[in-house]
Design goal:
The complex is a heterodimer of chains A (114) and B (113). Helix content of chain A is 0%, strand content 54%. Chain A is mainly beta. In chain A, strand 9 and strand 10 form a beta hairpin. Chain B is built from no helices and eleven strands. The chains are: A mainly beta (114), B mainly beta (113). The interface between A and B is medium-sized, with 29 and 25 residues.
Chain lengths: 114, 113
């Protein structure tokens, strides 16, 4: 398996624009997580899904953020409208089953909002 | 409020010496702890973990120690190698929450020649 695949790797956008980040989890994994990395707060969990269903979105900072998982092999994180303070690296991760606490991370998307 | 804290943002160690990275947590519900390593432009990769029923877990050059009463864990790397230079994240989870991990802010380790 190629691992967790995220696209794009880098995104530069202007304030106010919509941004969509994409993730393909490892095949067979039933948990999917979206994290955001900043210098001040490290890795923060934004939302996670189990079997395509959102379980906990308490980490989503504002209504401007939304995430979907239409099927087992694809998820999106959308920011609309984007703001400069959203600039960060966004990671997607997946894991297998409740008994597995090891999550496998993608390479991340570096988002810059100017 | 940071439930997992790594108070040292950076650490420099000479090659061959021991590296000790520290982590503190505040949530007493945490019962599983992990260390992840992250190289620039890559995602974090799992390194080693420990369950709260143990106080030590060893894997080659890497050993994690857990002190539940102090809510403290540490990662020891012996001997340190230049390839160990990376950012190390401490993470914690609770039973029943699967891989929902709470991470610290990371410690950047630099192993010098």
């Amino acid at each position: 398996d190629a691992g967790v695949i995220q696209s794009p790797r880098h995104e530069v956008t202007e304030m106010g624009q919509e941004v969509t980040l994409r993730c393909k989890p490892i095949s067979g994994h039933d948990y999917l997580f979206w994290y955001r990395q900043t210098m001040m707060r490290g890795l923060e969990l934004l939302i996670y899904f189990n079997n395509n269903v959102p379980i906990d979105d308490s980490g989503m900072p504002e209504d401007r953020f939304s995430a979907k998982m239409p099927n087992a092999s694809f998820s999106t994180l959308k920011i609309q409208p984007s703001e400069p303070r959203d600039s960060a690296v966004y990671f997607c991760a997946s894991s297998l089953g409740v008994s597995s606490t090891e999550a496998f991370f993608g390479q991340g998307t570096r988002l810059t909002v100017v | 409020d940071q439930q997992v804290k790594q108070n040292s943002p950076s650490l420099s160690v000479q090659e061959g010496r021991i590296s000790i990275l520290n982590c503190d947590y505040t949530n007493s519900m945490f019962d599983y702890f992990l260390w992840y390593k992250k190289y620039p432009a890559e995602g974090p990769t799992f390194l080693i973990s420990i369950s709260s029923i143990k106080d030590k877990n060893e894997d080659g050059r890497f050993t994690v120690f857990l002190n539940k009463s102090a809510k403290h864990l540490s990662l020891h790397i012996v001997p340190s190698q230049p390839g160990d230079s990376a950012v190390y994240f401490c993470a914690a989870s609770s039973t029943g929450t699967a891989s929902k991990l709470t991470f610290g802010t990371g410690t950047r380790l630099q192993v010098t020649l």
